[in-house]
Amino acid sequence: MSEALLEFAGVSYAWPDGRAVFADLSFRIEQGEKVVLLGPNGAGKSTLLRLANGLMAPGSGNIRWQGQPLSTERLRQRDFARAFRQANVLLFQHPEAMLFNPTVREEIAYGPRQLGLPDGEARLAHWAEELGLDELLDEAPFTLSGGQKQKVALACLLVLDPHFLALDEPSASLDPATVGWLIDTLLDSGRTILASTHNLSLAAELGERALILDARGRLCYDGPLLPALRDLELLQAAGLAHRHRHRHGAQAHAHLHVHDWESS
To answer: pTM here?
Structure first.
């Protein structure tokens, strides 16, 4: 078996009060795959993305990045951490958590500067233009709209030219035109994608493979995306669809209804 870009092997995680998020979670993501992470609120999707990005450490089990352990000890090693932070990035659902510099220009330039990339200014100019941020470069990020903040956060990641991009509800604050641009850009880029979403219509555009967590944080499906989206019984078991009763005059019947919304 070839070496995976990212591998979870028997990973478990629990909050400090002992509440389990998930247990014995195992999957592999190969270079270039486009994977959509689905599950109801509380299933552990955001936690999984943070574990994949090295921001949290599992309680048990192993996470490997390009065949090497992704551990607290490894991330303390300068060379490994430097390469990992450029290659593996995470777009938070709420961009405010990612923005801390006084201007948009300094936000986008921060990553290349920290990593010592020699062409930081050219990278900044390219992604500012791509995302329509040219006229906002001297603005303070906290003054921007939610969608503009999301674009700035995205530019801060793409400016690093990462290999692996984790996205936590990427369309939550973006307008439809930018969502369309994002999908086209990501799918054509050759980057490996792991994207979490509640929006099943968007899921069909974002990837080819699905990882579905149920309400208990168990991986209940790992396979082709489109068949999963058509399997209402699977979606019901995962908490992504519910059986809804309708009344027509004196007659009532029930059918499965898919939850297709954005997380607030």
So the answer is: 0.88
